[in-house]
């Protein structure tokens, strides 16, 4: 089984290193910047891997699975690898946040080839190829992607299918929408201990859930409370990937995580002032 992972950052590096633990999986990393090896501090032990690393999209060869793990805003760059990696049988999984995995890549691939994946693995990249995976975590894919699930059978990552991918993706977006307060304040997840911060996060989730429901997602009535409780139960020093981007002076996934709520809210006539404010403030901070 040949697998190419495009984007060996926090998620791509973690996933590639776990896949490479199985000798019969032939893992290739497609990187923008050269990478010596992968060292992942996982919850149970440190794992290492030295997969083949390509830095030129022209060097790729067809594989069975392509896993795209760049940031959402790097979709166009990621797509340049696809010409060589994809043949008539290749499936392409998009391991990104947001609810637009398929739309993001249909300019480059037929939708039927694309497997959207919801990743819930808190991971931080400390240096090229050196990653701290804080939880074993999970990946959810639609129920026509059982062969993706099989790839991870030897890993502690809980990879499974869902009958209702749309609802799960919006549920994850609710988590990410609230996490924007960390990127804005440049502080880790522990800020949720303040009741006034939690109230802002609650409203961000409320708007996200309203838009999600209008888009057809089925979300629990108490999702706001559930997500605040989840943040409060998590590690106070947790750095979500948008905060990680801001701290590293990289672009942030503002549009994929909060902008999308505002855009789709407009489509349904649902007001989203809290998310609109976050988008404006983060864009201003990044300018
Ligand atoms: N980190 C986390 O805890 C989680 C992240 N996610 C989501 O997963 C996705 C990936 O996030 P994350 O792993 O944190 O991101 P990172 O920024 O850590 O990694 C992205 C990687 O993509 C590489 N890249 C960018 N453009 C290209 C290109 N054209 N060709 C090859 N590689 C490229 C970057 O290269 P370079 O090294 O040059 O920057 C980097 O290695 C995002 O959508 C994020 O929201 C989901 C759950 C948890
Ligand atoms: C919320 C979290 C940490 C979950 O994996 C995430 O999605 C991110 O950091 O982007």
TrEMBL record:
Q: Where is the Ketopantoate reductase C-terminal domain?
A: 164-283
Which terms are listed as keywords in the entry?
NADP, Oxidoreductase, Pantothenate biosynthesis
Identify the residues that the record assigns to the Ketopantoate reductase N-terminal domain, covering every copy.
3-141
A GO MF label:
2-dehydropantoate 2-reductase activity
InterPro entries named in the record? 6-PGluconate_DH-like_C_sf (IPR008927), 6PGD_dom2 (IPR013328), ApbA (IPR003710), KPA_reductase (IPR013752), KPR-Related (IPR051402), KPR_N (IPR013332), NAD(P)-bd_dom_sf (IPR036291)
Any one annotated GO CC term: cytoplasm
Q: So what EC number does this one have? A: 1.1.1.169
User: What role does this protein play?
Assistant: Catalyzes the NADPH-dependent reduction of ketopantoate into pantoic acid.
Protein name per its UniProtKB record: 2-dehydropantoate 2-reductase
